[in-house]
Structure formats: C-alpha cells, structure tokens
User: What shape does this take?
Amino acid sequence: MFSIGQISTRTGVKVPTIRYYEQMGLIAAEERTEGNQRRFSQDGLERLHFIRHARDLGLSIDMIRHLLTIAPSNHAESHRIAAEHLGEVRDRIARLKRLEAELVRIKDSCDGKDECSVLSAFGDHSQCASGH
Amino acid sequence: MFSIGQISTRTGVKVPTIRYYEQMGLIAAEERTEGNQRRFSQDGLERLHFIRHARDLGLSIDMIRHLLTIAPSNHAESHRIAAEHLGEVRDRIARLKRLEAELVRIKDSCDGKDECSVLSAFGDHSQCASGH
DNA sequence: TATAATTCCTCTAGTCCCTAGAGGTTCAAG
DNA sequence: CTTGAACCTCTAGGGACTAGAGGAATTATA
Assistant: This one.
C-alpha cells in the first residue's frame, strides 16, 4: 500500500493533481487509514501511470475516463480513440516544427543586425527568409 | 479600416479572442465608429498577426506583451526571448515525437488482436514493444 | 427606403486542468 | 513521546479562452 506522496513520486504526478483526478473520477484510493489518509494498491499505482501517460499523450480527462470505463471491455473502441488521436498529435508536431524553424531563423539569421527586427520576423514568416 | 470580423477572418483569430486580447492589453482598435464598433488599421491587422503567430509558438500573453512593449526598442531583449523559447519548443517536439511513436505502436502493433490491450499499452511503454 | 439579416457591442459566467493557500490532523523517525 | 514531515478538506486563483444573454449598429435585399 502506498501513500499519496509515494505514488506521486513514483508517477511524477503531483499530490494535488492526484486528488484532483480523484475528484474527476479517474482514480480512487482503495483504502483509507484510521486517520483518513489515502492508501493505494499496486493497481492504483498502475492506473495513475496510465492516466499520466495518457495525459502526456494529450488525451483529455474525459477521454481518459472513457478509456478507463467503457474501453476496457471494448477493445475496438479504445483502439479507435488511439487512432483518432494520432492525427492530432501529428498535426501538433508539424506545427511545432514549423515554429521551431522559425525560431531558429529569428535567432540565427538576424544575429546582432538591426535591419531585421525580431518583431517583424515574428509577425511575418517570409520576411527574413530571403532578405539576408 | 477593418471591422473586428474582418481581421478575425484574415488572421484566423476568433472575434471573442480578439476582444480578450484587447482586454489583456495586447491590441487596441485605432478607432471606433459612431456606433461604437471597432475599426482596425493595417497596423492593427499586422499586430494581430504577430500575436497569433507568437501564441502559436507557445509564447504566453505576458511574454507577448513584453515583446510588444519593451522589446521593439530593445533588439537584444526580444532576441533573447526568442532564443530562450527555442529550447522549450524543441523539448515539446521531442516529447510529442515519442508520443507519436507510441500511438503508432498502440494503433498498429496490436491491430485487431486481443492479447495486447490498448489500455495496458497506454499504461506501459515497454509492453507491446517486444511482445509481438 | 423599409426591413430583414448579419454583425457588432458589453457583460457575466463557464471551461479545462490544474496550482496555491489556509487551517488543521495523522504518521513515522528518533 | 515528541517533533517534523506528510497528510486532510476546503476555497479560491490562474491562464487562455469560449459561450450566452440582451441589445444596438451596419449591410444587403426587396
């Protein structure tokens, strides 16, 4: 049995966040001590790992609850959710990569010079690109 | 002069969001009509483009305000902000890529089969990877 | 030009996912 | 058995929007 602090350090999810997840119905402590403190089993720990992982993947709390309740009995459904989400993640990567390129340009290509303001570089993709 | 709706469609920033930005002190309509409707100049349009762009890059509203007020007169400062942010963006890309790989694994490697539950795949990186 | 449809206004409140703080109780190490 | 860390509940705040109510202005159509 683990205390909330223990599963917190083991999963990297902060203590108040775990309590928040409990409130949201994602997780529940199997037991409480005499003094009302949460005690989690190995199962709870794994469930929290799952939640954390899924959050990292960008799934909403609703989606996760869905996965945790409906999905276990419905393989195809959870499968579908994963697949659906893949598209979104790829989109985000693509956008971020564009932005990365832009930041590199802002940082490097205008180094020290005054002609190309960072501000306008931010505002307009095509400005620095050919200029120098 | 553009109406709020016009700069909205031109920049892709929703009308209420523009008003929100105004409230946050990022942008202001140069004029108002007799009937109190906002009218933006070309400058306003560009400023909003900039804001949108910067938000896409993940800059906070505070950072953007900083860029828009302090930075224009201080090239080095805005430069520094951009550089500083590059690290964060790269981090995010790296994380998302790991997540993408994982989603692909979840989606593909367990396709149709029942042995490897999406749930446990979500919960544990290393589970599906070698299993089948 | 009248009227209808659309866009705009302000304001308040709600959403999502936490995070912080107050004020107090329980647990585990020494 | 004491002390200090970890725990409890509860309320409120924060960032970046988003939605809705209730009404006024603008634009397009007849």
Notes: Residues 113-119, 123-132 of chain A have pLDDT under 50 and may be disordered. Residues 3, 14, 16-17, 20, 24, 33-37, 55, 60-61 of chain A lie near DNA strand C (CB under 10 Å from a C1'). The first helix of chain A runs from residue 4 to 11. Helices of chain A lie at 4-11, 15-23, 42-56, 61-69, 75-109, 118-123, 125-131.
